[in-house]
Write a structure and sequence with these properties.
Layout lengths: L1 E8 L4 E3 L5 E2 L2 E2 L3 E3 L2 E9 L7 E2 L2 E3 L18 E2 L2 E2 L5 E5 L5 E6 L3 E6 L5 E5 L9 E7 L9 E5 L1
Amino acid sequence: MHDLLLKDTLDECTIFVEGSFTVDGNPKTPEVHDNTLVFLIDKLERCDTITITFEAEVTKACCKCNRPEPEKSREPVTRTTISRFEPFIVGTGIRGATIIAIFPGNVERSTTVNLLGAWSIRVPVSLSAGQTITVFQVEPGKEPSNPVTVRVI
């Protein structure tokens, strides 16, 4: 007969779920210290097989432990002002990226940056001096850029 000391350390992103520890289907209570489970299994015969199960859960504070933050898209290039009479807002960006423009009244339009790095969006509403248009760029696989504000003059 032999005794077996089981020690299992959970990583910093997980915690032991109380009441989930079993040995061969029988509920048991391990000692838990600094995220390490310790349990003594006594009187094992040579070639005995046992099944130990327990649950661990990912902590809210650590949900992004192993995931890098997505990179932000670069800001699109456009003029800082636009005349209230201009029919298009234009600029440059990263080829294949999506440009999103939000016009007064929360009217949203989008387009794709062409192979030359240029984009244009038709102004869908009548503009008045003092209003603003907000423009974002979204590159594939990245978060939207910081907003660029275009002031209507």
